[in-house]
Structures are given as structure tokens and as C-alpha cells.
Amino acid sequence: MGESAKKVKIGIYFATWWGLNVVFNIYNKKVLNAYPYPWLTSTLSLAMGSLIMLVSWATRIAEAPSTDLDFWKALFPVALAHSIGHVAATVSMSKVAVSFTHIIKSAEPAFSVLVSRFFLGESFPPGVYLSLLPIIGGCGLAAVTELNFNMIGFVGAMISNLAFVFRNIFSKKGMKGKSVSGMNYYACLSILSLVILTPFAIAVEGPQMWAAGWEKALTDIGPNFIWWLVAQSVFYHLYNQVSYMSLDEISPLTFSIGNTMKRISVIVSSIIIFRTPVQPVNALGAAIAVMGTFLYSQSTFIADSPTKTLFAFSGQRDKKTHCRELVLQLIKGKEVVEALKDGDSTSSSSSKYLRPLDFDKVGQAWRNIAV
Q1: What's the pLDDT score for residue 18?
Q2: Which residues make Cβ contacts (< 8 Å) with residue 145, sequence separation at least 6?
Q3: Cα separation of 33 and 109, whole Å?
Q4: Backbone phi, then psi, for 349, in 5-degree steps?
Q5: pTM (predicted TM-score)
């Protein structure tokens, strides 16, 4: 695929991802306003996604993944964290404005750094820590100036942040070496999350509450309520599916920037559609927090970029083995292996270890990585 065609494809991914996410958040809030049972609606969205993929596999629209017991064991902690994060975010949106939930959820990078630092012992360069200041400050400013502040909504968004951080950590640690596409990975995640969440939804809310709320919602809204519920569930799966599929095509940095822009689009669109009252200082806090998220993505990419390490070692023959191992750990993809093979010259000239052309291949593979 040519460079121009690839840019168009990525643009379509982004536009679809943002559009589906905006539509999901609109219908999700409509459903929660009429039917305030976040545990059930969270479960239904996972059930719809699971059903869509099971049908796709059965009809061969999509190729079913090849999995084993070890795969599902590794996926379990990821699914548990995903279930907690999903239902906590839905609980938050049932209590506060969509825009406020997403402003607080923009603080997820701060949780990621803190968990990685104090629980995993990882260290970060100063730029990463500095990028957390606008995130924390912006979220704090938005919270204290929120006109319709609700503690359950605030805590729900915070729990969702923490849960999704652990989901990402478990995914990176437990799913290494598991060759499943982004689309099928999220499908398996949805199925296992559904199994985990269903008994808790029944215990927390239960069929009696759901039945009473269902009758009231149909009385107040009419048949449109059923459409809202179906749309909310379908669009939840579709936007997540597209986001995971996009990871197969773009770099983590591009994905992070796209995620930041997605959050902006959701915040702005929800304020307009639901006519959410916003004070100027509240809007300022949101802007600062989102900008901090963007700076964080830039800082972490620079810190993690393998290119510097490659250049540092490319002229040192005694570092050849270490460099190869480092690249293979950081970058997944056939192109990288081919690049390393091409650069594995028998010549005594150490400069031929990785030629400029090979760096281009490594860069291309880095852009196609799925983390």
C-alpha cells in the first residue's frame, strides 16, 4: 500500500473512531437519563459486542482466532480490569454530565505514571512528570468549578482511570507472544468481560429493579427507548473495535494523539447536544487537562523511542547482539526481523550493521506496532 493510500486509510480509521465514540456517548447518556441502571447497560453493551463477533465468526465474515487455555488465563486479569473500568465509567456518566466524566478521564496518564512508578518500580524522565502537572491541575480546576458536581460520578471516573491503567499493564505483561489481531483480541476481551460482569450486575441491581425501570422508561420515552438501548450497545462495540483495529495500523504516539482528539470531540459535542452549562473557568480547566494529556503522549513517546538506542549502538560491533535483542523486545513485526537480517552483514565494517535503508524499515515497523 502506498504512503498516500495509507494516510487515507488512517484518516478513515480516525474519523470513524471519533464519530462512533461521539454517537455512543450521546445514546449512552440518553439511555442512562431514562433508565438509570448502569450495571445493566454496561452488561448489555458487552453482550451486544460478543453477539456481533460470535455471529461474524460463525458466518466467516471474520476469521475466528486460534486460542488456547493459556490465552484465556492471560486474558482474565485484563478482562477483570476492563469490566471494572467499563462499569465505573458508566456509573459516572449516570450521575454527571458526559463532558465532566471525560474531563476526569483525561487524567488517566497520571494514574499510569503513578502506578508504574510505585507498583512496578519504573522510572520516567522529568518531561513525563512535568506533563502530569497540567493534567492534575486542569482536572482539579474542572472538578471544583463543575456546576453539577456529584461525588459518585467523580469517584466512578477516577476508578475507571485506575482500572484501565491496570488493564493496559496486564495486557502488556500477560499477552506478549499471543498472535491475535486487534479486532479478535477485543472480541475475546468483550466475551470474557461479559462472563465476569453479568453476576455482579444481577447482584447489584437485579431483575426486579430492571423490570420496574423498563416499564417507566417505555412509558416516558416510548418505543424510541428500545432504539436508544440497541444503538448504545452497538456503537460501544463498534467504536472500541475500530480503536483496536487502528492499533494495527498506527504508532502508539499517533494513537495517543487520536485519543486526545477523540476526547475533545466528545466533550464539545456533548456540551452542545445536551446544552450543558459550562463556566469559563471550567472550560479552561478542561482545556488544560486535555493539553496535558497531549504533552504526556509526546513525552512518553520520546522516552520510549527505540530510534535513539539504535543509533547509539549502530556503530559498535560489540553491542550488536544487545541491540538486536532490544529491538526485538520493543518492536513486533515481520518487517523488523527482515530489517535485522538485512543488516546482519558478515563484513567487518560495523557501520553496515544497520544501514540507513534498514532504519527506514525499522521505522515503518514501529509505525505498525500494536502495543
Answers
A1: 86
A2: 279, 281, 282, 285
A3: 29
A4: -75, 115
A5: 0.76
